[in-house]
Amino acid sequence: MTPNRHWLENAESVLIVAAVLAAIAAIFYRSLVYLPPVLLSLLFVLQPILRYRSEQLTRRMDAVLNQRLQRQVTEEIELLTRRVAAREIAPETRSREPLPPGDLTPLQQRLEAIENQVRSLSSADLDGLASQHRDLQESIAQTIDYLNRLAIGKRLERLERAVQASSARVELPRATVEPPEPSSETEDSPSPSEAPAVSPPPPVPSKSSASGVQLPKFARGEIVPQQWECVRNLNAHSDWVRALALTPDGNLLATGSFDTTVKLWRVDSGELLATLDDHDRGIFDLLVTPDGRTLASASWDKTVKLWQLPEGRLWTSLEGHTGSVRSLTLSADGTTLVSGSFDETMKVWDLDRGALRDTLTDYTGPIYAVALSPNGEWLAAGEGDGTITLWHLQRGEYIDSIVGSLDGVEAIAFANDRAVVTGNGDGTVQVWDLDRPGEIDTRSLHSGPVTGIAIAPDRRSFATSSADGTVKIWHFPTLTPLSTLMEETGAVMSVCFASDGKTLVTGSARGMVRICRLAV
Question: Which SUPFAM superfamilies does UniProt cross-reference here (predicted)?
């Protein structure tokens, strides 16, 4: 099922139908003989407006995609530049003949050591750079393919040919006839089919942009600021720590990185228990089942892998996506897993059998983030063009969508069964109340892209991580700031709460993992 069309497109369809009906009626009613030409004239006036709107939408989408592509290329260039800069040697040092150890100053000895390290670089470093280059090429190719599939110009041409064909079939009356007496009866348009009733009822579908709309005010009660302190730092990975997951008892921590590995740690001691290296490319997301016995990992290699805990043994690999798997979400009972992918689809898996149950898509853009409501009824997806879509999971039915940001939805979560919280690439956080269709509350809470959202177990607060180097904790639903944690090593790429709500874990772009405790 696809999102609702714009009202201008609906008006065009109504004019086409009205023109055909008016032409038929004019055969019998002489007074209506001029109505079909008038309707057709309005139709041809409307077509340039629709074409102009379509061109504007295409330009806006192209601009957003170009900005995202430019940002991605810039990040890759900066990453390569930092790595090369760390290994550069001054030209005069390279050309200098080696001196005896006794004649070297401490600075010269340091330069000599760096030069020896550069000579001893392994092929693994070069392979890593080549892998990142291939990943960038894949993203560019998928973006170009997505733009080609839109085919806006061809759609307009087909619509114009259909209108012309419909107009050619309309025949005006050739003879003068006495019209019969007008009838008081009118022909009713067919009513749409009704979907099965569910509780709570789904919102009215809409496809509207509604940034800046304020949600209703709630009674605050007592909102107490929080104090968090870092109790342990783990030098966990050699690249971005993009995913974190804790077991329900809070004793085992799983970290996933763009260095292609998943690592298991003891939270109390920081001891590394296992390194899982069966993925070929970087890790985007991690989940632990409610019983703490299974770990799911989503990767750039287009697979979802399931691991047995605590030993970290690979159980099975879920395959079927044709693009990188960006996000995972799990039902409260731990039996249903949903994966969102850059291939524009969401796949629903039976976790007990490791089997595919359903595939959901509206083919409007790559899926960056997915989330299930606590009651397991609603599935929300954040897309690369800033659209948030809502699905009924059991029926596999599209329900509603809203556009709140021109940048991608990087993170998404349900604060409760009727409220969706998203973090976007432009630094904004949005709250969509499903009981108020078409309205979305938008707040600029970070100066960099929001990379992660974690809902506290009591659902009275949530944490956001950002590339601006901060983790911020907010009261829900007032969005009052409760605490701010600074990451000294740079961008924060992931965040998660422990089940007791008193432990917070963050992962940085430099491979560091921090374990923080709520001060009493």
Answer: WD40 repeat-like
233 touches 514 (CB < 8 A): yes
Summarised one tens digit per residue, pLDDT across range 465-504 is 999 999 999 999 999 999 999 998 889 999 999 999 999 9
Contacts 24+ apart (CB under 8 A), 24-30: 26/172, 26/173, 27/171, 27/172, 27/173, 28/177, 28/179, 28/180, 29/179, 29/182, 30/173, 30/176, 30/177, 30/178, 30/179
Beta bridge partners of 263: 255, 275
pLDDT at residue 206, rounded to an integer: 40
Phi/psi of residue 454, nearest 5 degrees: -130, 125
- The radius of gyration of the chain's CA atoms, rounded to the nearest angstrom, is 29
Rama region for 114: left / alpha / beta (φ>0; ψ in -120 to 50; rest): alpha
The answer to whether 239 touches 493, Cβ cutoff 8 Å, is no
Mean pLDDT score of the chain, rounded to an integer? 80
CB 264 within 8 A of CB 277: no
Structure tokens at 12: 């065009």
Residue with tokens 């609603």: 378
Q: Where in the chain is the domain with CATH 2.130.10.10?
A: 207-518
pLDDT surpasses 70 at 60: yes
Distant-in-sequence, close-in-space partners of 466: CB < 8 Å, separation ≥ 6? 423, 427, 446, 447, 448, 449, 450, 451, 472, 491, 492
Segment holding 36, helix H or strand E: helix 35-85
What DSSP string runs through 135-153?
HHHHHHHHHHHHHHHH-HH
HEC-encoded secondary structure of 178-236: CCCCCCCCCCCCCCCCCCCCCCCCCCCCCEEECCCCCCCCCCCCCCCCCCEEEEEEEEC
- Order of strands across the sheet with 207-209? 207-209, 397-403, 387-392, 378-383, 367-372
Gap between the Cα atoms of 226 and 516, Å rounded: 12
**By the 8 A CB rule, do 415 and 476 touch?**
yes
Is the domain spanning 207-518 CATH 2.130.10.10? The answer is: yes
Q: What digits encode the pLDDT tens for the residues 390-403?
A: 999 999 999 999 88
On the question of a cis peptide bond just before residue 310, with omega within 30 degrees of 0, the verdict is: yes
Task: Provide the residue type at 503 as one letter.
Answer: T
- Residue 184 CB neighbours (<10 A): 5
